[in-house]
Amino acid sequence: IPTYYEGDLILVKGVADSNAIQLQVVIVFHSPYNWDTLIIHRVVEKIETSEGIVLRTKGDNNPVRDPWQIQEEYVVGLVLRQIPYMGGIITAIRSPLGASIVFSLLILVTVVDFFYSKKESSTRPL
Q: pTM surpassing 0.85?
């Protein structure tokens, strides 16, 4: 926030080379505290060390940069674009209730199409 919101779908391009990561680009990376948690923040500093590239990041809504340094193996990719609300729709569809609704709609469309096509073929002259 304010660049990306919960429920936005984020399209990410993986990076094979840390040279593709420039200052001010938004990246997705594994949290230094929990590998299973992904974070979306902007690169504010890129440091070359003897062990490789280290990145400093900052969330757009945060007043100060993050307390950690990200090594390049933590980076998942660069954010290419966002599709507002689409992530929320996908999450809703993946829930049991959402899947049931989608399945019910598919059955309804199939039944209506079947009866409509049967009615149309019976009224057609031979």
A: no
